[in-house]
Amino acid sequence: MLKEAIYHRPKNNFAYAYDNETLHIRLRSKKGDLVKVFLIHGDPYQWTEAGWSNAHKPMSLEGSDDLFDYWFAEIKPEFRRLRYGFEIYSDTETAVYGERGFVDKDPRDSGFYFCFPFLNSVDVFEAPNWVKSTVWYQIFPERFANGNPLLNPQGTLPWGSADPEPDTYFGGDFEGIIKNINHLVKLGITGIYLTPIFKANTNHKYDTIDYMEIDPQFGDKETFKHLIETCHKNGIRVMLDAVFNHSGFYFEAFKDVLEKQEKSKFKEWFHLREFPVKAFPEPNYDTFAFTHMMPKLNTEHPEVKQYLLNVAKYWIEEFDIDGWRLDVANEVDHEFWREFRRAVKAIKSDVYILGEIWHDSMPWLQGDQFDAVMNYPFTNASLEYFAKDKINADEFAHQLTKVLTSYPKNVNEAAFNLLGSHDTPRILTICNEDKEKVKLLFLFQLSFIGTPCIYYGDEIGLTGENDPGCRKCMIWKEDKQDRELFTIVKKLISLRNKHSAFGNDGEFTFLETNNEKNYVIYSKQSVDETIIITINNSSDHIDVNIPYDFTNKKPVDLWDNAMLKETSKIELTPYGFSIILVKN
Fold this sequence. Notes:
Distance between the termini: 37 Å
Strand order of the largest sheet: 18-17-16-15-12-11-20-19
Radius of gyration: 26 Å
Shape: globular
Largest sheet: 8 strands, parallel
Helix content: 10-25%
């Protein structure tokens, strides 16, 4: 037994409150080392040697990655407090593990064990419930649709007449979105994420000039309100992009600093290293990356903090937006985000707060800051397996297990799962324009735990390399769209909406991975039904035995809506898949 690999720590992703009465407990051990684990648990005030009152609950093997196994148990302590530890078994040894380490047998001393002092409801991580059933659609407004040519900036090119460049304009606006709302409704979209819409000096608008004004190329506030109302009438929520880490070079406060230097009343709004402040040859102030056009805001300063919080509240109060996506969220101080959450939730309790963080994000996901982050570890694993063939089936399962066990389950249910965005190459391009691989990516994304997001145009086969190539104009002529791909994505979304197990209510489990034939099998299980999905990520026909007992079951092929024989053997075409439903 390799005790050095065994790990547990209360709180975070290893011991947390799932809801107001339920605790989830995880234990990590060396892969293949332990054969069974029991959770020893009891109330701390009933845990005495004289009046012994504890219990042993078997823990299930939740999943494995390349190095570790993860064991899981759910428990509802009667008095919302818990002392607990682990009775662990290898093939040759038995031990008891608690906060003080390892012993040979239960010491019957509550002080030896881990402690969850009290399940306070205010500490429970709680994302908006509506997010769990939402399918998002990311729109880069400048490239979605030109609904009012009178708003076109000077030099605007005819729609789709050229490949995009960093400084080109095609005239996308709010009216273009409104006029094409039926496209989203038909697809099954229930949430729109808009990249920045505020007044800025570029086509991408991440260099904000005025946080309280809409960029005139998109329309005015009346048109924006009409857009929100149109979306809400069609069952679609709207999330805006907030750039609070940095402003634009032409933001009035920064312009004042450049003009008045040390005499500027805004000099403490930014991270200035010396005077005179200058942008060239290198900026002598902190910026996003090293971009002189994006000076970093000092969010610790009371005036900056209040200004940005007023911005966040204004767009909720005046326009009833449903969420904020927070750009470069990891570079802003935690205390600002805590105050941000309190401010916006006080106005609209179910507003969605999404942080752009590309790495381990547990410090931001403890219920006091964000509801979710953009799940790039999911993105990377999915693209490396399905699109790039860089990892095998086992490695894919290991990476996804790491994703799922890195966070509490209630955090995973709100995770923002994307395959592409305005910052990444188009998925069809990454797949070398192999549409069959794109179908598998959409199948996995839309059946995984979390809230999926489709980047505009991916559903009709847009291509494009990295920025600016991934920001092409949306194609609206149907004879130029991939309508077969659109129909497949639409059908997958409908399965997510119709079957609770297909979406967020389904417990995700890898059943089998096969490196030789390059397939994966996983299940999604809810209270009422189990869905078993097999994906053939190879160019060969393969026969697969599904590791599931169909005895006395009536399996249904959800894709073809046909009854199947009670057999576990299926045949899959190259890059084919199977979606089987059984009632529990």
